[in-house]
Amino acid sequence: MRWQRARRTPVEADPESGTPVAVDEPRSFLGYGTEQASLFAAAWLPAWTGNDPRALAAFYAHDAFYSDPAVPEGIHGREALTAYLARLLARYPDWVWTQTASEPMREGFVNFWRARIPREDAQLELSGICLVVLRSGLIVRNHVFFDRSPLLRAPTAKVAAHARR
């Protein structure tokens, strides 16, 4: 993790002298570098495979926000996200998510991903990106972007109605 000390800023005047009093602002989280993003993704993305929505939801803060093309208005809170993930992972437990690259981003990282989704006759592969904003090691915002058209054209058996990560 990269941290930056914020500059000292006068925030109030001393009551006796009237002189500005400076205090340290909180440190700001600059985000994960490539190595930290890879380590985080190596733990987080495998949780999308299988049928354990609580294990996956454990990567998200209680007040997390999640959005993707299927839920562009987003899902607020870990409890609602867990319910969403329960339906999704129960239906498509065999998909596999991997990180293909990452870029640092203030307070997190941009995750470039690939999803392999089994179908009865073949395997569907999707690529996309997501913005991952972290607080204390947990995801507080996760915005997922990808082209849904291959999913919409694919047979529904063994293919997710929408992709993640």
Describe the protein:
A hairpin with a 2-residue loop joins β5 (60-68) and β6. The longest helix is centred in the middle third of the chain and has 14 residues, at 78-91. This protein has one domain (30-153): Nuclear Transport Factor 2, Chain: A, CATH 3.10.450. The model is unreliable at 1-12, 21-26 and 157-165 (pLDDT under 50). The radius of gyration is 20 Å and the shape is globular. The chain starts with a strand and ends in a 12-residue tail after the last helix. Helix content is 21%, strand content 46%. The strands form three sheets. The chain has a six-stranded mixed beta sheet, covered by helices on one side. A two-stranded antiparallel sheet has the order 1-4. A two-stranded antiparallel ribbon has the order 2-3. It is of the alpha+beta class and 165 residues long. The chain contains four helices and ten strands; from the N terminus they run ββββααββαββββα.
Descriptors:
165 residues; alpha+beta; Nuclear Transport Factor 2, Chain: A; six-stranded mixed sheet; two-stranded antiparallel ribbon; 10 strands; globular; disordered C terminus
